[in-house]
Write a structure and sequence with these properties.
Layout (H helix, E strand, L loop, with lengths): L4 E5 L20 E2 L2 E2 H11 L4 E6 L4 H6 L4 H9 L3 H13 L1 E6 L6 H7 L1 H4 L4 E4 L3 E3 L2 H15 L2 E7 L9 E9 L2 E9 L10 E9 L2 H7 L11 H8 L5 E5 L4 E3 L3 H14 L1 H18 L2
Parallel strand pairs: 1-4, 1-6, 4-5, 8-12
Antiparallel strand pairs: 2-3, 6-11, 7-13, 8-11, 9-10, 10-12
The structure holds 1-O-phosphono-alpha-D-glucopyranose.
The site of 1-O-phosphono-alpha-D-glucopyranose (G1P) has 14 residues, from strand 11 and helix 9.
Length: 291
């Protein structure tokens, strides 16, 4: 069965970024001049998935507006001859075929995914979390979908992290099934470094069979009192084989202020229009500090 739909849970409070996220969604924080959520959406569009189901909440209207047409802005850009910007703005609004589903209570990531059940229906689907941007993200989504087509089971993307940072992530135990194909044996949400069964962290990209909805319905609140997607995956492991996909490229975390800042700097240093001036600026800041 082919994969046509993706779910993007974007209803979280963004507490790690307060007060910036009091009235603005965390997903709209910019990496220089592009909101984080646009990177994730582009991943899907480039991978050929256009039916995007956003699980939203209160204060998330700006995400809907971002992917909608803005006629007065288009008129202004046309009149002022800013064709480049006009092209970009139009491209964003024609990019997606969105469905917005409201998560009425913020009961956790697992609950958010379950909220999308009626919109997804009885078919496999992809989930992407807005915290992490992947280099070659579209390629990873394609590879995960290929794995799903080959093996027929859910596929969870993992990446290696430093052992002291495992407590920020869901962590998986994997076992080789055949040459280079790994199955997931166990998962645990945000273990302490001492408890962590490995340093393979869940990166926030998943392909699920619709059975995940059944296991989500019987998932009790876990870490932080929230219904965790990781706990539903643990229940899924009792019913079906679940496969591991290892992300070997660069992973940019934007989930905490310091990780976000590092990601912004790294993107800026790679961008031709700003990198030279920024490098000079950073060097001058350091040399003044060393005086
Ligand atoms: C969520 C998931 C976690 C995953 C992480 C990736 O946690 O619950 O399993 O490793 O995303 O970013 P959050 O960062 O929303 O707390």
């Amino acid at each position: 069965m082919s994969i046509r739909k993706a779910v993007l849970p974007v209803a979280g409070w963004g507490t790690r970024f307060l007060p910036a996220t009091k009235a603005m969604p965390k997903e709209m924080l910019p990496i220089i001049d592009k909101p984080i959520i646009q990177f994730i959406v582009e991943e899907f569009i480039d991978a050929g998935i256009e039916n995007l189901i956003f699980v939203t909440g209160k204060h998330k209207k700006s995400i809907e507006n971002h992917f909608d047409v803005n006629e007065s802005l288009e008129k202004h850009l046309t009149e002022s001859g800013k064709d480049d910007l006009l092209y970009q703005i139009r491209r964003i609004s024609h990019m997606v075929n969105p469905i917005y589903v409201r998560q009425k209570e913020q009961l956790g990531l697992g609950h958010a995914v379950l909220t999308a059940e009626a919109a997804v229906g009885n078919e496999p689907f992809v989930v992407a979390l807005g915290d992490i941007i992947l280099e070659n993200g579209e390629g990873h989504i394609r590879n995960m979908i290929d794995m799903f087509s080959r093996f027929g089971g859910s596929v969870i993307a993992l990446f290696e992290v430093e052992p002291e940072t495992v407590s920020k992530y869901g962590v998986a135990v994997v076992k080789e099934k055949e040459n280079g194909v790994f199955k997931i044996e166990d998962v645990v949400e945000k273990p302490s470094p001492e408890e962590a069964p490995s340093n393979l962290a869940i990166v926030g990209r998943y392909v699920f069979t619709p059975s995940i909805f059944d296991t989500l319905k019987s998932t009790k609140p876990g870490k932080g009192g929230e219904v965790q997607l990781t706990d539903a995956i643990k229940l899924l492991l009792e019913r079906e084989e679940v496969y591991a996909y290892k992300v070997d490229g660069k992973v940019y975390d934007t989930g905490t202020p310091i990780d976000y800042l590092k990601t912004v700097v790294e993107f800026a240093l790679r961008r031709e229009d700003v990198s030279e001036e920024l490098t000079g600026f950073i060097q001058s800041v350091f040399s003044k500090q060393n005086l």
